Amino acid sequence: MTRKPALILFALALMVVGLIWTFQGLGYWEGSAMTGEETWAVIGPAVAGLGVALLIVVTRPRR
């Protein structure tokens, strides 16, 4: 049994969460204690970047 589909879903979830945290940190997405907090404007892109990196590694063809 392969873990590839689960890892792809996890990578996509990381990207979505990272984007949400970024928008909240920048103040574009209101209604949370995270809104306008600079910390989340930094953590969000890092989490989204990890999701992109994981997606690249998981979907890369094996040699």
UniProtKB/TrEMBL annotation:
Transmembrane regions listed in the UniProt entry: 7-27, 39-58
This protein's UniProt keywords: Membrane, Transmembrane, Transmembrane helix
Stated name of the protein: Uncharacterized protein
